[in-house]
Design brief:
The protein is an alpha+beta fold and 288 residues long.
């Protein structure tokens, strides 16, 4: 199985090498051995933009070379970069840059372009890609799940067991789930000097009505968080070295010595296919 970092780099390089060809998600997915749907989902998760929009932006940016340095007709430029009609090129160009090709040629106006994307070497792991942090605003939401005390010396292995048990045996008892394919894990009271942390296996719900006995309900208020993302090949197991790296990275980006909590979201839609997607969120304080 190809490392997702190598896979994404391969897709980015293929786009640049075939910038004048009729490339699309189906073609690129076939080259890397993924379904088109899964490649598009993977790309959107990694780069926060759709694969189709990125291809279009790169084609339009590349076309500026011909537009500004040659006398080629607009129809010819449009065809060179995979646009079937001059009008479709004009509409896309205006949407991308806010002005028409004719205005650019006439005025030489400075415009913002879309440079090629790259994955930094520091983001690449042996079995995946680690990206972040992004500073995001997380709206209020509710979760219902099971609360556990997990000893630090067995925390990673124990968490994996709890995740699997909850997902396979308990989550269906919870009503009115939001995003039923998303597992949520909450670690609270994080302090490596203590013996235990509190860990909650949960799903997001519409409201906290009718909570079954034995389950815990929590409401998260709107907060500013640092978000970290991971794309990897091991959907059911996170090894200890990776877990420590993740927590150490999070601590570097928080204002407090200890994070108040770490919220994990795992997208299970990749589990039966190829890769898993994991997001970590931890609150951060605004600088004064």
């Amino acid at each position: 199985m190809q490392n997702p970092g190598d896979l994404l780099e391969s897709v980015l390089n293929e786009i640049e090498s075939r910038i004048k060809e009729d490339i699309n998600a189906d073609f690129l997915a076939d080259n890397v051995g993924l379904s088109s749907i899964h490649l598009q989902r993977l790309f959107k998760f990694a780069f926060n933009q759709s694969l189709g929009a990125y291809i279009r932006s790169r084609k339009l940016t590349a076309s500026l070379e011909n537009l500004l340095n040659t006398n080629s007709k607009l129809m010819s430029i449009a065809m060179d970069y995979g646009f079937d009609y001059e009008q479709s090129y004009l509409r896309s160009f205006k949407r991308e840059f806010g002005v028409t090709p004719g205005v650019i040629r006439k005025t030489g106006q400075v415009i913002k372009i879309k440079p090629p994307l790259h994955l930094l070497d520091e983001n690449k792991l042996d079995d995946g890609v680690f990206i972040g942090p992004d500073i995001v605003m997380v709206p209020q939401f509710h979760i219902i799940g099971r609360k556990h005390q997990v000893p630090h010396n067995v925390s990673v292995n124990r968490m994996n067991e709890l995740i699997q048990h909850f997902w396979e045996n308990e989550r269906r008892q919870i009503k009115k789930m939001v995003n039923p394919d998303i597992f949520i894990g909450l670690t609270r009271n994080i302090n490596w000097k203590e013996k235990y942390s509190e860990y909650i296996t949960a799903v997001q719900v519409e409201n906290l009505k009718n909570v079954h006995q034995g389950f815990n309900s929590i409401t998260f208020e709107t907060s500013i968080c640092a978000r970290f993302r991971y794309i990897g090949q091991q959907p059911s197991y996170v090894n200890k070295n990776f877990a420590y790296m993740m927590y150490n990275t999070i601590r570097k980006h928080t204002q407090n010595k200890q994070a108040k909590y770490v919220l994990v979201k795992i997208d299970t839609r990749f589990y039966n296919e190829t890769y898993c997607q994991i997001e970590w969120f931890t609150p951060v304080s605004e600088k004064q």
